[in-house]
Write a structure and sequence with these properties.
By secondary structure, this protein is mainly alpha-helical. It has a domain of about 80 residues. The protein contains 5 helices and no strands. Helix 1 runs antiparallel to helix 2 and helix 2 runs antiparallel to helix 3. It is flat. The chain starts with a helix and ends with a helix.
């Protein structure tokens, strides 16, 4: 993996030195795609390994909690979940439509404007 990263950095430097060279740009982008695929593959491989370790720990009821937490703690906390926004699309649309309108200001806004 470090060889691919090294190759990518080298191509990136070449691309910045000669930005109009199409061969370097194409090679850089293909190498970047390969590097991203490798990262994703390694990440999924790591998580699959950790999941299998956790399954083994849970099946072995004799194992203590320390081994469980030693397996869980090194894992990355940045697992991405799909979150639905708390504000509906209609509310966003209404907000941005009224953003530039000449509606009367509320008292807090009037205080700020008067102090300016």
């Amino acid at each position: 993996m470090s060889l691919k990263r090294h190759e990518l950095r080298k191509l990136s430097n070449e691309k910045h030195r000669d930005p109009l060279n199409d061969k370097i740009r194409v090679k850089y982008h293909t190498t970047l795609q390969q590097y991203k695929k490798l990262l994703n593959h390694k990440r999924s491989e790591y998580y699959n390994l950790k999941i299998s370790e956790l399954e083994n720990i849970t099946y072995n009821s004799s194992s203590d909690t320390r081994t469980f937490w030693n397996c869980v703690n090194p894992m990355d906390d940045s697992i991405k979940y799909e979150v639905t926004p708390p504000i509906s699309e209609a509310n966003w649309l209404n907000y941005f439509q009224n953003l530039g309108s000449n509606k009367p200001l509320i008292s807090d806004q009037q205080k700020v404007v008067s102090e300016l």
